[in-house]
Amino acid sequence: MALLKKRLAEAKETAAAAAASHVTKEEALGDMRAISAELVAAKTREQQKELADRHGEAVDAARHARNLADNAGLKVERLQQEFEKEELALKAKSKQTTDVRSKALQERERKRAEQRSRLEAELTRKESERHKQVLSLKQVLNRHAEARKKIAEEDAPEDGELPIPGQQSASANAAAGAGAGANSVGVGSGVYAGRGGGGAAS
User: Fold this and answer.
1) Can you give the residue range of the structural domain that contains 29?
2) For a tag site, which of 27, 83, 88, 158 has the least CB within 10 Å?
3) In sequence order, what are the residues at sequence separation of 6 or more whose Cβ sits closer than 8 angstroms to the Cβ of residue 143?
4) Where does this protein have compositionally biased stretches of type Gly residues (predicted)?
C-alpha cells in the first residue's frame, strides 16, 4: 500500500512535469490510472482479508463455544451419574445399617426373654423348695408336739393318785410347748406362703 501510494505520487509529478508533451502526459495519466486501480485492488484485498480473518475468528469462537457447551453437557451428565451412584450407595448403606440395628434389637430382646424365662424358672424352683422345706418343718414340729403331748399324757396322774411334786408343772409346760410349736408353724408357714405367693406373682 505505501509503495503504491509512493508510485502514485511519482506519477502525478511526472504528469505535471510532462504537461508540455502530449505523449508523455498520456503515459503519465495511464500510469496514474493503473496505479490507482492497483491501489483500489490492494485496498479491496486488504478489506477481504480482514473480513476473512474476522470470519475465521467468529468460526473459531463458535467452535470454542460449541466445545465448551459439549464439555459442559458432558460434565453435567457425569455429575448426574456420580450423584445417582452416591444416592444409591447411601440408600444401600442406610438399609444395611437399619437391618443390622434391627437384628441387634431382635437379638437383644431374645436374650432378655431367655434371661427372664431362666429367672422365672429359678424363682419357681426356689419357691417350690422353700414350700417343701416349710411343709417338712411343719411335719417335724407337729411330730414334736405330738410327742410332747403324749409324754404329758403318760406323766399325768391317774384318778385318785396324787401328783408327784414338779410333775404337774412339767406336764403343763410340755402341753404349753406343744401348743406354741403348732402356733409357730402356722405363723411360719403363713409367712412363707405369703412370700411364695409374692414371688410367683412377681
Assistant:
1) 1-47
2) 158
3) none
4) 187-202
